């Protein structure tokens, strides 16, 4: 089958491209001029020059594809989404939908995120039916807002007769994290720069399992549905300790007091308001660090797609080995 893919140079896109080729599909991947793609040179990809601002270029790239996998997105921890982020994640998703329709694509597989689902207000992990309640918990940063809004555009297109399926991956670790993106957490722990942990939690997953789940969703997912592709629900202290054990380094042992974290978050807010540089910390990232309910169930994907996930320690090992091979 001929498929098209946006965001191939990113963590999930690169692993998805590799999985699609291994499954025997022909893959056209879009990229912007100047994108770093040398780590994909060994993959037999057909490249098309197009970005999320170019509906015509996207439509041309999607010609002949039965399925489009939309993985490209702008990522930032800013509290308020800057215009470039809204354009990429929200308007860009609409352009992908328009380009799919113009090119006669049969199905869109939209890669969303667990931040578009919600946060648990009880002890149990939440599923796809949970209401989006991040604003009530101070977790509605720019990335969460734009990923939520982009999902609404996909739902609206489905209501008009468009065939689309959505997936909501958790916090991904694994190989081919070139920037790095989420793998920065691994590198900070290994380098000893993670001074302590917070009591919040997240759903950590191997990106290779997410890629397999995305292919299954494209093949067997029900139109208009979304599927959480999660893994191990862990507190940050637990995942820091796991990273340290896999890497053979000392884990951060200090619990960061909430008052100190809030002060750091306020300082980050001030820096964000005065600078165009990406903040490392702000009040939003601190809120995530203290959110114990960011825990998810993948039961629906397991039941309908046959989704499985390996222990996240294997993803950490794969990420470390991949970076070592690039050195």
Stretches where pLDDT is under 50 for at least 5 consecutive residues are none
Q: Briefly note the structural class of the backbone.
A: alpha/beta
Helix and strand element order? EHEEHEHEHEEHEHEEHHHHH
Amino- and carboxy-terminal Cα gap: 35 Å
Sheet-strand content, in percent, reads 5-15%
Round the mean pLDDT to the nearest integer and report it: 95
**CATH H-level name... which superfamily?**
NAD(P)-binding Rossmann-like Domain
Number of contiguous helices: 11
Strand order of the largest sheet: 3-2-1-4-5-6-9
- What does the overall shape look like? globular
Walkthrough of the structure:
The protein is α/β, with parallel strands linked by helices. The chain has one domain: Rossmann fold, CATH 3.40.50.720. It is built from eleven helices and ten strands. The protein has helices spanning 11-22, 55-62, 83-103, 142-159, 184-190, 207-220, 236-247, 258-274, 283-289, 299-305, 312-326, and strands at residues 2-6, 26-31, 46-49, 67-70, 107-111, 164-169, 171-173, 201-206, 226-229, 232-235. It has a seven-stranded parallel beta sheet, sandwiched between helices. The model has no long low-confidence stretch (mean pLDDT 95).
């Amino acid at each position: 089958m001929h498929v098209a893919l946006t965001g191939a140079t990113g963590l999930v896109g690169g692993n998805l491209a590799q999985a699609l080729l291994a499954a025997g599909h022909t893959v056209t991947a879009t990229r912007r001029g100047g994108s770093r793609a040398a780590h994909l040179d060994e993959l037999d990809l057909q490249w098309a020059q197009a970005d999320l601002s170019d509906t015509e270029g996207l439509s041309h790239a999607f010609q002949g594809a039965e399925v489009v996998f939309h993985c490209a997105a702008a990522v930032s921890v800013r509290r308020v989404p800057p215009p470039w982020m809204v354009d990429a994640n929200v308007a860009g998703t609409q352009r992908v939908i328009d380009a799919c329709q113009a090119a006669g694509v049969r199905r869109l597989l939209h890669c969303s995120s667990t931040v578009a689902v919600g946060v648990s207000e009880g002890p149990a992990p939440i599923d796809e039916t949970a209401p989006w309640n991040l604003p009530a918990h101070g977790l509605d940063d720019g990335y969460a807002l734009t990923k939520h809004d982009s999902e609404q555009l996909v739902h609206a297109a489905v209501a008009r007769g468009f065939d689309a399926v959505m997936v909501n991956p958790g916090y991904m670790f694994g190989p081919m994290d070139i920037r790095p993106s989420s793998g920065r957490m691994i590198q900070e722990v290994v380098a000893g720069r993670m001074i302590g942990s917070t009591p919040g939690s997240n759903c950590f997953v191997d990106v290779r399992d997410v890629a397999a789940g995305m292919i299954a969703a494209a093949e067997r997912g029900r139109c208009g549905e979304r599927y959480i592709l999660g893994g191990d629900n862990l507190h940050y202290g637990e995942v820091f300790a796991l990273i340290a054990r896999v890497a053979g380094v000392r884990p951060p042992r200090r619990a960061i007091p909430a008052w100190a974290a809030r002060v750091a978050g306020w300082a980050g807010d001030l820096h964000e308001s005065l600078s165009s540089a990406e903040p490392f910390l702000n009040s939003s990232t601190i809120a995530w660090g203290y959110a114990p309910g960011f825990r998810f169930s993948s039961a629906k994907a397991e039941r309908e797609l046959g989704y499985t996930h390996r222990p996240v320690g294997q993803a950490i090992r794969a990420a470390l080995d991949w970076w070592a091979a690039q050195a």
